[in-house]
Specification:
The protein has 424 residues and is mainly alpha-helical. The chain is built from 17 helices and no strands. It has one domain (18-204, 229-414): MFS general substrate transporter like domains (Growth Hormone, Chain: A, Up-down Bundle). It is found in: Cell membrane.
Length: 424
């Protein structure tokens, strides 16, 4: 008789799942690195190698990335609830394989757009799944900390890769050397996801069996057995906390999408060399990534709502500082503040979704929230491109500042505190 090794029963908590959690943090850093390798380089590639003019046309690759990633987020949530988390994670990395090669070999801008469609699928499937897997592992008490660590790894890697790709572009040219980073990231991620990652859906089932309604009755209108249409409506429109989080996430990534396509051009028109422009662009996700190590855990202690409102307000002030004509030092201060405001918002919004959504449909709720959030990439690209073409680069940044202020007002008025009341 052949004896099979016993699979340990799932246990919730960060300490109990430290090894798998650390592995998933590493995988998400590689997901972020895939974005960072191209952020500094592609806007310059558009103008210098392909001779593109018109900001709207240049931003098409950001829009293609954002729309594709948003759609992939939805399928990531639905498929991970139905078939498990690990197969979706692995599929996401398979879509990344051609991306660096397409960017290296691209004979025209259409190849760049196609590569960003594949990158959007990779990001939607892989990043959404690592979010859900970490929420599964840690349980309800440490969601903010878990999301802070997850997002810090992802966007810290965006910053490091942006800085490194900008340096390599300045030293060795725009192609092919900066995009060799992506080949390394993909190979390592496939190894980690395919060989070492473990399925976490059992942890979600464990939490679901132990799930109890809040004593204050605030979630009594939500049930365990919602269908996909009901989950979409609750997350998008009806449930005050979930829908407010979706709006705030959309505006938050609108700022990121706009800065992704616009910032390198804004800094280049001021005469900054590529290396300095890369440093400025890396500063935003660097502060954003490192800040989340603090803000995620902080939301577990002081609550979610006011941290989100304050973060959106800080982004408003930062965008106003960037929009005003400035020097390297002034832009550095503005981008650092923008990163700090985003750090206050990003992991906290994901924690809100984890607080409110039932474990039975949490994967789908996270996916739908990330649909709206990542449509912000496309919205930022379209808004930034059209506004910059009509009124100039600075006007596009002012428009984003106004939208950030509006989102802060909506969250303050509509969202309730979602952090479960502490016992004892």
């Amino acid at each position: 008789m052949v004896r099979h090794p016993r699979i340990p029963s799932p246990v919730l908590g960060l300490r109990a799942n430290a090894a798998q959690f650390a592995l998933l943090v590493t995988v998400n850093a590689l997901v972020g690195g895939m974005v960072g390798q191209q952020q500094t380089v592609l806007p310059l590639l558009a103008t210098r190698e392909f001779g593109l003019t018109g900001f709207t046309f240049i931003f098409t690759y950001v829009a293609a990335f954002g729309v594709t990633k948003a759609i992939a987020n939805y399928f990531a949530g639905t498929l991970s609830d139905r078939y498990g988390r690990r197969p979706v994670l692995l599929a996401g990395w398979l879509f990344a394989v051609p991306v660096p090669l397409m960017l290296i070999l691209a004979p025209d801008w259409g190849w760049v757009i196609a590569a960003n469609v594949l990158l959007g699928i990779n990001q939607g499937l892989a990043w959404s799944t690592t979010v859900v897997m970490k929420i599964d592992l840690v349980g309800p008490r440490q969601r903010g900390l878990a999301m802070g660590l997850n997002e810090a790894a992802g966007y810290g890697a965006v910053a490091v890769s942006s800085l490194l790709a900008g340096y390599l572009a300045g030293q060795d040219g725009l192609r092919p050397v900066p995009f060799l980073l992506g080949l390394f990231y993909t190979a390592l991620a496939l190894l980690l996801s395919g060989v070492f990652a473990r399925e976490t859906r059992g942890h979600a089932r464990l939490e679901s069996r132990a799930h109890t309604a809040r004593a204050d009755g605030i979630h009594d209108h939500l049930r365990r057995n919602l269908d996909n249409r009901q989950i979409f409506l609750q997350t998008s429109l009806r449930e005050p906390a979930l829908s407010s989080a979706s709006l705030a996430g959309l505006v938050d990534n609108l700022n990121f999408g706009l800065s992704w396509g616009l910032s390198p051009l804004l800094f280049a028109t001021a005469g900054l060399p590529v290396e300095q422009g890369g440093l400025l662009f890396a500063l935003y996700p660097a502060v954003w990534g490192a800040g989340q190590l603090v803000t995620g855990a902080l939301s577990d202690r002081i609550g979610r709502r006011h941290l989100i409102t304050a973060g959106m307000g800080l982004q408003t002030a930062a965008l106003a500082a960037i929009a005003a004509p400035s020097s390297f030092a002034g832009w550095a201060a503005g981008t650092a503040l923008l990163g700090a405001g985003t750090a206050m918002v990003y992991p906290t919004l994901l924690a809100v979704v984890g607080d409110v959504a039932h474990p039975a449909w949490r994967g789908r709720a996270v996916g739908i929230y990330r649909v709206w959030r990542d449509l912000g990439y496309a919205a930022g690209a379209v808004l930034g491109g059209i506004t910059a073409d009509l009124f100039g680069l600075h006007a596009a940044v002012w428009a984003a500042a106004a939208l950030s202020a509006g989102a802060a007002a909506v969250v303050e008025a509509r969202m309730y505190e979602t952090q479960p009341p502490r016992s004892g």
